[in-house]
Amino acid sequence: MPPIIVAQGLSKVYRSGRIVVPALNDVSFAVERGEYVSIVGPSGSGKSTLFYLLGGLTRATSGTVLIDGVDFASLPDAERTAVRGRKIGFVFQKFNLLPTLSARSNIEIAYEISGRQSGGKQPPLDEKFLVYLAELLGIGGRLDHRPSELSGGEQQRVAIARALITRPALVLADEPTGNLDTANSDTVLSMLRRSNQEFQQTVLMITHNPEAAEIGDRILHMRDGHLLEQSSEAMSVSH
Ligand SMILES: Nc1ncnc2c1ncn2[C@@H]1O[C@H](COP(=O)(O)OP(=O)(O)OP(=O)(O)O)[C@@H](O)[C@H]1O
Ligand SMILES: [Mg+2]
Description:
This protein is α/β, with parallel strands linked by helices. The protein contains seven helices and nine strands, in the order E-E-E-H-E-H-E-H-H-H-E-H-E-H-E-E. Strands 5-6-7-3-8-9 form a six-stranded mixed β-sheet, sandwiched between helices.
């Protein structure tokens, strides 16, 4: 099987008026199915830009991204949205939960939206799987709470359940522990690791925290829009 992510010569230049910001410069890498890859780098190094490009949320200035062999940029809008909804689960630093809905509804609605985007080809939501996920994530007793009634760590775990409910092949997480204290970060990281192992999901996690990055099978380092050396658990990493 081909790698689940293939990025080839990705560059992104932001232009606003006369200001030109080269945020990403000729980035190429591949991620194999089932891998947990961390991308670590300082603020402004282009991590979120890469995240948006990989998720098909913005267009590259040049270069290509193949997700599961599909080039999102080549698809019409509706189809791109459908394929993205089916294949990718997104986790954001700020959780992005809907504030007026319970945790359960936040998860359910993500599933419904994905179903609508794929033209109703999705089976009905398996409530048992929702409860299973919630229990795995330690929020089984919190499903009727609204985001404001949950701790930051619990909100992020709801956001992870929301990302996993469609059983995506790929989970993209941008600073999933960025707003959490150490204890909650550890929980969220081990949950992402567990879902990677239990559901054979590929996880690509972006972080500015070298310690959090260590959870990955492989760490890619970014600086100034470039990818630096690659390292694996077996190799020593100098920070
Ligand atoms: N929409 C935009 N318009 C113009 N410049 C942008 C835009 N988004 C990001 N940039 C610039 O591109 C560069 C990379 O930004 P990016 O958000 O990808 O960095 P990051 O590594 O995610 O940083 P952080 O760790 O702070 O989240 C920065 O110099 C940033 O100012
Ligand atoms: Mg960022």
